[in-house]
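Much of our argument rests on the idea that a fold can be written as discrete symbols. Part of our work consisted of pairing the sequence of a single chain with a tokenised description of its backbone. We regard such an encoding as a compact summary of how the chain folds. The amino acid sequence and the backbone structure tokens for this protein are reproduced below.
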Amino acid sequence: MNYKETLFFVARSLTISFEEKNKNEIEMILKTKDLDWDAVVKLSTSHCVFPAIYCNFKRANFLRYLPNDLVDYMKYITDLNRERNTQIIKQAKELNSLLLENSIKPIFLKGTGNLLAGIYCDIAERMVGDIDFIFSKDDYLKAITVLRNRGYFDVLNTDIEYPQFKHYQRLINDNNIAAIEIHKELLIEKYANEFNYSFVEKDNQFKNGAFVLSYENKLNLSIISNQIDDNAYYYKTINLRNAYDIFLLSKKINAKAAINKVDKLNRKLNYYLAVCYEVFNKVSTLEYNRTKKTSAYLSIFKSQYTNWEKTKRKHNIIRILIRLKVRLIFLYNCTHRKDYISYLLMKVRQNPVDAFLRFLGFNFNKPDTSLTNSKSYKRF
């Protein structure tokens, strides 16, 4: 299997609990083809959908087609993730109670918000890193104080805080499993006026004792997290964890109507919805706005898989250009924003070499939140 075949196989395997056409197609492949399971494991792990594949195969009674040692490995990882998510849900509810007791209303986002909203058939399906929530600007600083007083502290032990537009630096607690991110914004500054706390607070839901986004805003944020935050718009790629969330949410609301509720973001959201539609095999609930620009975007997305090694080299160039853009924006902010100027001066005074390396894009403290980094299930 080449990369494209593996990607489409994994993607369509995620839909078999809902899409009969894809279920039949996947079963035919499992029955008739000698699959490269190492490639499937590697890709589904890198996209953080390995437990979701297992759960879908189990519901469809497809595990009988898989090697026994792979089934054992999938069950092991899925059980670990289910236990982790059980602890994350417990932690989220404790955080929710603490904040509400202090007259602070949190709205839970992303994976934790989806777990609380119950969009998965099995909580083990979703791999979650941090607990993200957003607050009104009035509650934002209060929430930081309350959580610090409860024993949460900085993930990175530093006296110098990088100026953050979207959220406070990640905090952890020795007695809890997940780090937390306290948001005051949902998007980068360019789009913050369109999709923010005031926008999503109007129709948030109360699920399992906590506030979460509406299904429409969940879908939009799932696209935004990959398309904008992870720069998928430039790479023309898809992240199957986000895409799986979008697929499940499209079963609850009209996906095209959801993205049409935003203006400046609409085109980029529509591109990603179109990619999901194609990768998941033209699922009707993922229908998108058909435009010439969207067709051109899809054409580039599809063509880059004909030579994946060449595409990876192209992505490396894009990554360098994005880093350069980020550094230039940082330098521009240093010309007129006191928080950036103070941060730069303090970093240079503290350690000039480290400051220079970080400016070039090196990060020596990137956390690993994955359950496994195995390149092959056969290591199990």
Notes: Confidence is low (pLDDT under 50) at residues 364-377. Residues 308-360 form one domain. Residues 68-101 form the longest helix (34 residues).
